[in-house]
């Protein structure tokens, strides 16, 4: 048989297939390379645009603030004003440094500052006005100018207001709080000067008004005289001095409170009168005194003397009863001594409540020595048995140690110089017998003196 000749069809088919696959793979590779080049080109374009935008923003900030600016908007969204070496890092925990060195400045704020537009404003202007008693203003001084400041204290808005009212007819028509509407306060010269701009005031030449506000400092009612001084300043026009402010109908009042009463600036005491009137019906005398002490210490009635005169008999019932029992005489009547005892009791409660004496609260002072409480303690110490003290001294004084002898000798020198320091100590409570002997020795010498 003749040999079988193989066909080249299969080989050509395979070659064609391989060539087609090669061309397809090459096309895909070229396409991928083209896409990669396109991505690189787009990325480079974006980076260039970002650098351009950053440079523009940095130029704005540099022009606005005159500082060297380092910024990375893409990562930190903040501007670092200052050294180029300073960076707002997310890893930094120094909050103080971040606050001082880091600040965000938007494009709107940068342009606003470039054109020097106003950042903030206050309208209308408000000026605080001082309020103090005569020669009661705050003065700052050094060792060099202390004498000069004491002789000539600096002016305040209040003292300058008095001076302006003395020399300016228009100022005499104003209240203290209205001064800033027509005058400016010159901080350097410390005096009021008429305004040169504003709305002209009819009937007065060179007087202009604005909407400026003067605010008088508030004063707590416990600071009574200063409180009533402020009340007068709010209601009296054109005072020329502290004395003139206390003058009512040509008569100089003894206090600012009295001036307020005569000008009828204080409320009447009808409410407190009714309160005490209800209390006397069913309350004990001690309870009435306590209520009266609370009223005059914390409620500040306009005329506490009238309340005292009206209800003092009810406040003294228990004291009168005690004196009748002590003296064995039921016919004893209320006297000034009994009223004085009630006033002392009321004053003691007022000292506990408000740390003020009755004379500071508008009542008459009770008639008792200034150091009555101390004298009572000293009287109690004098009740010790002197013979017992002497025996205690003779027994234990030779047993004192060196330090205790030094203390004893120092105390002896003080007593001999007649410069006394009294320490009220209950000897029975001293546990150490040697210290008890030393205290007894000192007490014996004090008693002899």
From TrEMBL:
PANTHER family: PTHR10492. One of its GO terms (molecular function) is helicase activity. Residues 1-38 are annotated as: Disordered. This is ATP-dependent DNA helicase. Residues 15-27 have a biased composition (Polar residues). Residues 28-38 have a biased composition (Basic and acidic residues). It comes from Trichonephila clavata. Keywords: ATP-binding, Helicase, Hydrolase, Nucleotide-binding. The keyword ATP-binding applies.
């Amino acid at each position: 048989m003749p040999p079988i000749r193989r066909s080249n069809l299969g080989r050509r088919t395979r070659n064609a297939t391989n060539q087609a696959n090669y061309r397809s793979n090459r096309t895909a590779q070229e396409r991928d390379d083209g896409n990669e080049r396109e991505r690189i080109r787009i990325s480079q374009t974006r980076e260039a645009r970002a650098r351009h935008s950053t440079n523009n923003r940095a130029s704005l900030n540099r022009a606005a603030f005159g500082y060297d600016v380092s910024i990375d908007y893409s990562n930190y969204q903040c501007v670092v004003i200052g050294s180029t070496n300073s960076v707002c890092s997310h890893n930094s925990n120094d909050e103080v440094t971040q606050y001082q060195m880091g600040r965000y400045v938007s494009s709107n704020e940068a342009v606003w500052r470039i054109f020097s537009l106003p950042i903030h404003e206050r309208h209308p202007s408000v000026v605080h006005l001082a309020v103090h008693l005569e020669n009661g203003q705050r003065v700052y001084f050094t060792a060099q100018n202390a004498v000069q400041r004491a002789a000539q204290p600096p002016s305040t808005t209040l003292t300058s207001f008095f001076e302006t009212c003395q020399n300016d007819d228009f100022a005499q028509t104003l209240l203290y709080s209205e001064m800033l509407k027509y005058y400016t306060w010159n901080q350097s010269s410390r005096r009021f000067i008429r305004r040169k701009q504003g709305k002209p005031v009819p009937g007065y030449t060179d007087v202009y008004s604005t909407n400026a506000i003067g605010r008088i400092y508030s004063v707590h009612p416990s600071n009574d005289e200063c409180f009533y001084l402020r009340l007068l300043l709010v209601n009296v026009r054109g005072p020329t001095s502290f004395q003139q402010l206390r003058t009512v109908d040509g008569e100089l009042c003894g206090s600012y409170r009295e001036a307020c009463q005569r000008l009828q600036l204080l409320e009447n005491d009808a409410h407190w009168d009714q309160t005490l009137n209800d209390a006397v019906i069913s309350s004990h005398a001690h309870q009435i005194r306590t209520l009266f002490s609370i009223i005059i210490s914390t409620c500040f009635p306009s005329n506490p003397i009238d309340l005292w005169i009206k209800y003092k008999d009810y406040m003294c019932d228990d004291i009168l009863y005690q004196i009748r029992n002590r003296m064995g005489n039921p016919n004893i009547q209320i006297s000034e001594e009994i009223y004085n005892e009630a006033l002392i009791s009321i004053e003691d409660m007022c000292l506990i409540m408000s740390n003020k004496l009755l004379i500071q609260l508008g009542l008459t002072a009770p008639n008792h020595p200034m150091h009555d409480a101390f004298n009572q303690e000293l009287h109690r110490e004098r009740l010790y048995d002197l013979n017992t003290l002497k025996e205690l001294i003779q027994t234990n004084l030779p047993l004192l140690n060196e330090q205790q002898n030094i203390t004893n000798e120092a105390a002896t020198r003080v007593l001999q110089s007649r410069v006394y320091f009294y320490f009220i100590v209950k000897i029975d409570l001293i546990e150490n017998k040697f210290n008890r002997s030393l205290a007894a020795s000192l007490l014996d010498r004090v008693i002899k003196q």
